[in-house]
Amino acid sequence: MRMQRMTFTLLSTVLAWGHPAVAAAVEKSTRSTPIPSAQELAENVDLLGGAVETELIFQEVSGGRPSVVNGAVSDGAADLMIRVELRTRVDGVMGMLKAGETVPYQRVRVTIENLTTTDVDKTLTVELPPQVTRAHGWSYASNILLPPQQGTTNPFEDQYRITVTVQPRETMVLHDDATPPSPLWRSASPLTAIDEDTVSFAGVTALPAGNVDEATARTTAFTSAKGLLSTDVAGARTVFTTTLQPWMLGLEDATLYAASHGLTTEVLADLEDNPRLALEQQTVRGDCNRDGIQGAECQQWADKGMQRGFVMAVLAHMDAALQRVDDGDLSLTAGAAHEWDLAWGYFQAVRSTAVSRETNCLTGPPAELTLQDCAMVAALDDAFVDGMNAILLDDGNGLGGFARTVETRLVKVYYYATTRYLMKMLKAVADVVTYNSARAEGRAFSTSIAHTLPAADRTAVDQAFAVRDPASFNAAVAVDVVSRLNNALEGTHLGAAELLDPQDMTEVVP
Amino acid sequence: MRLASLLMILVTLASAGCDECEYSAECSGVDASITRSDAGTGTPTPASVAVERAVTLVERPIANGLASLKLEILPPQDVEAPPGLPLGDFLASGSADIWIHANIRYSAALVGGRNVGDMVPYLRVGLEITNEDDGRRLSTNLVPVVSVANGVFYARNLSLGSSVGAATSHYSVRVVIRRPALLGADADAVSPGIVIGEDMVGAEAGTFLDDVATVITSHFSLDDLREQQVSTGTGGTPSTGGTSSSSGGGYIAP
Fold first, then answer.
1. Burial class (CB in 10 A: 0-12, 13-18, 19+), A242
2. How high is the ipTM of this complex?
3. What is B9-33 written as a DSSP string?
4. Choice between A305 and A290, residue whose per-residue pLDDT is larger
5. What is the mean pLDDT of residues A286-307?
6. Which of residues 25-44 of B touch A (CB under 8 A)?
7. B171 by DSSP, 3-state: which?
8. Cα–Cα distances in angstroms (integers) from residue B84 to residues B89, B126, B143, B227, in the given order
9. Between chains, do A10 and B217 touch, taking CB under 8 Å as contact?
10. How would residue A22 be classed by pLDDT, with cut points 50, 70 and 90?
C-alpha cells in the first residue's frame, strides 16, 4: 500500500532572537529642517532597456527595526531618509513576473557628494539595506547624515550630486532558463541607475548653489581694480589686463546673447575698449584724456565700463542657462544650474550699484531723484534664488520669467543711475570738473542699457552726455534724454511706477 | 496492509519530532550542510531515487493568509550557482536526484507586497528531509533562484540517494520559514539583512516578519515521484505538475 501523504502544519513557538518589537528611534539632526512629505529626487525609467525603473526619494528620518543611519545599524542623528525603489516596468521580464514588483536581492549603493561645501568630508557612500514598510512595500532605504557630517550648517541649503548604482548579489542562483543572465542578476560591476547632480532637498534659499569660482575671481579682480583707480591706475590696469580683459573681449561675441536683448555686434564693439582705454588714460568717446582732463573721467569710464562687462556676463549666462534647459541639461556642473549660478556670481560685482541706487531713490528729493517704486535689490536677489529653484526643483520651468525679472531689474538700476547723473550734471553746471565727472559717469552708466534703445535714441542720448561745456547743457536736454529712455523702456522693461517724470529735471536746482 | 500503513503514519508523526518545534540549529540544521545522520545503516542505491513528475507537497496559505506557499518536488534542474552558499554549494543537476522548491508569494498587497503574486523576498527557508526507514536526516536550506519563466523562488537540487538514501517507506519533509534576517544581526549571504520600517514595527505578529517561524511538514515516498503513479485516495495526492498561476507554477516533469 502506498503511504498516504499527510500534510500538517506544526505550530511554531516564539523564538528568542533578542530583538525587541519596538522601533528604535533615530534622532533628527538639529541642523536640518523638517521634511513635510516624501519627495522624488530623481527617476530613471531607462534602466536595462526600460525593463526596470529606479526612483530616488527622500523623506523624513524614520526609525525601524533595527534603526539605521548611513547604511549601518545606529540610532544616531540623521538629516533625512533616502529610499530607492527598484521596480519592474512590464510583466514577465528578467525573472520578475509582474510590472511594479520590487526587484529584490540587489546591492543598492548611494554616493552623495556635497557640491557646495569646501569641507574635505563631502562625499558619502552607503549601501541601502532592503526595507519593508506598510506604506511603501519593499525598497532600499537608510537614514542619512549628509556630508559633511560635522557642522551645523543646514544641509538642505546645499547642493548634492547623487549617484545610485545597482548590482545583483553574488549569491543569486540562476535557473537554466535565466542564462545567459541579464545584468539584473549577474554583473561584475555596478550599473549606474541614477546620476543626478542638481539635487536639492528643499530648494535653495541662497546662492551660489555650486562652484562659481570663475565669477568670484573676476568680481574680486573688479573690486581690486576699482579700489586702485584713484591711487594706482597702473596697478588697476594690470589687474584688468590679467584677469578681466580677455574675458570682456569674449563677451563682445553677440552670439552669446538672445536676439531679444538687442545686443548686436555694433553695440558690443566697445565693451572691452572702454575700460581698457580709460585705464590706459586714452580717450574714450572723446572723454577721459581730453584737454589734459584725466583722473575723474577716466575713473568713471574704467569703473562703469568694467561694470558693463559684468552686466553683459549676467545676461549671457542667463541665456546660456535657458539654452541648457532647452537642451535638457540641468546640471550644476556644466548645465543650466551652473550657468544660472554664474549669472548670480557676476551679478555680485554690480549688486552694490543696485543697493546704492535703491538707497538714492528712497532718499528722494531734493538730494535725489525718486520713483514711485524704488525697489531694485530684493527683486534681483529673489529672482536669482527662484530661478535656481526652478531649475533644481521644476526642470527649469519658469526660468525664463526669472531671467526676465533679472534683466528688467538691472535695466531699472542703470536707468535710474543714468538719470541720476543727468541730475548731477544739472546741479554742477557751475563746476566744470564736477560736471564732467558726473557727465562721464552718467554716460558710462548709460552704455549698460544702450542696447535697449532704438539706434536713433541711443545716439541722441550719447550725444547729450557728450556735451562737455556745462553752459550748453540744460534741463531741456535732460528732459529729452529721460523722455527717450522712458519711451524705449516703458512696457518693455519698466512699469510706469518705475519711470521718472521727465519734468522732474526742470525742478533740479543747480 | 491497513495496519502496516497505520504504523507507518505513526512512525512519520513520531519522526517529525515535535508538533510545536522551536526552530534551532539542532532542529533545522542551521549550522550544517547536507549531512547524514548517524541513525540507520542501510545504503540504498542513489539511482533508486528518481523524479519522473512534479509533485506538490504543500500548497496552502501561510502567515495568516498574507502569503501562499507552494512546495514542490521536481526533477533536478540545471542552474548557474555561485560557490559558497550558506549551508553548502548548490548541487549540479547531474549530482542531484531531486529538486525541491518553495514558491512563497503574496496573497495580498500588504506587508510589502505590491501585487498579489509578488515574491516574498529575503526569507530564510530551512529544509529537513528525513528517511523514515532509518532516521537519516538531510538538513539544508532553500536559496533564492531566479527563473525567467517562474520568477524568483527558493529552491535547491538535492541528492537524496547520497545523503539520506532511498527510503522504502517514505521521507518526512520539514520546512521552517523564518523571517528575513535583520540588518546587522542574523544576516547571511541569502538573507543579507533587512530593516522593518517604523510603520511595521509592532505589527509583525502573524506575518512572515514575525519572530515566530512557520513550520510546515509533509512527506512523500519514492512511489509518489514515479510517472505511473496515479492520484488516488485521501489525505492529499501528488500533483501532476505545478500550474498555479498565482504561485508562478512549477516545472512540468519530463
1. exposed
2. 0.76
3. HHHHHHHT--SSB---HHHH-TT-S
4. A305
5. 83
6. none
7. strand
8. 6, 17, 12, 35
9. yes
10. low
